[in-house]
Amino acid sequence: MPKSLITGGAGFIGSHVVKHCLSMGHEVVVLDDLSGGFEDHIPEGANFMKGSVYDDLLIRDLFNTYRFDYVYHLAAYAAEGLSHFIRRFNYNTNLVGSINLINESIKHKVKCFAFTSSIAVYGKGQLPMTESMTPVPEDPYGISKYAVELDVRAAHEMFGLNYVIFRPHNVYGENQNIGDKYRNVIGIFMNKIMQGSPLTIFGDGLQTRAFSYIDDVALPIATCVKKPDAYNQVFNIGADKPYTVNELAHVVCKELGVEPDIKYLNARNEVLHAYSDHSKAHKVFGDPTGISLEEGIARMATWARKGGDRRSQEFHNIEITEKLPDGWGIKKPVPL
Known about the structure:
Blueprint: E1 3-7, H1 12-23, E2 27-32, E3 47-50, H2 56-66, E4 70-73, H3 87-107, E5 112-116, H4 140-159, E6 163-167, E7 171-172, H5 185-195, E8 199-202, E9 208-209, E10 212-213, H6 215-223, E11 233-236, E12 243-244, H7 245-255, E13 262-265, E14 273-274, H8 279-285, H9 293-307
Parallel strand pairs: 1-2, 1-4, 2-3, 4-5, 5-6, 6-11, 7-10, 8-13, 9-14
Antiparallel strand pairs: 9-12
């Protein structure tokens, strides 16, 4: 029975990867600090260890105890817009924590290291985004993800560590943390609707994204270790069709049975248009599920209604308060 470590396995994408790995007959160990995930999202049958990838001693003990065959690294603080203001936290969690895992994977001869990166590595002005492009990330989150990509490739060249890198984007679906006001626009919209609050959109709402239902992302990640053709490759995964944020807001309102009530805020520093080409992934992992945005939103809405709204979590360790976006409710220090 293969032994797999899944970091971030109590989180949104990670919990779905855990489910698929268990169905493939893996013995699964989940490592998660529960900063953005929930223990009750972990499927039954997985072993859970609460802790951080930044804890190098814990990582070392886990590898010594379980002798993992595969590592699926999904743990990250993925608030792209917030990353400008939490640079130290961003790099410690997303970069240094990843290096801890790569070090132990090399030492213990892990068969494959599956890393969940992001299309944030591409930056702006490269559409559609393809794996052959040279990444030029625009924010600390994208920079940290690309740095890990470079390091895991260097580990392959130097030590023979096999890897698969995935660049998903704008993923949504069941188990998403709808109480996080800094990321996951669909979850934010649903939470606000259930709270009776207006939807807030940064800028004019004409920025575009291709919103990806979870089944089109979690399944390729879980099954990649069984596909030798995927080894030592980079794959964009997710939905093909881009929508404006305004269009998205109307779809979410329709599926939750409310009239749109939208409040527009000042635009923030973000890539305006982002969507990628997935032809490479389709050749290796097969055709996508074909679930439309409307169907995916309907499925997520059914799940969200059962759990109800959630109070937005606050990030209390803001390192830079200059130019904080409106709408986050973060108090700025009063000048002396």
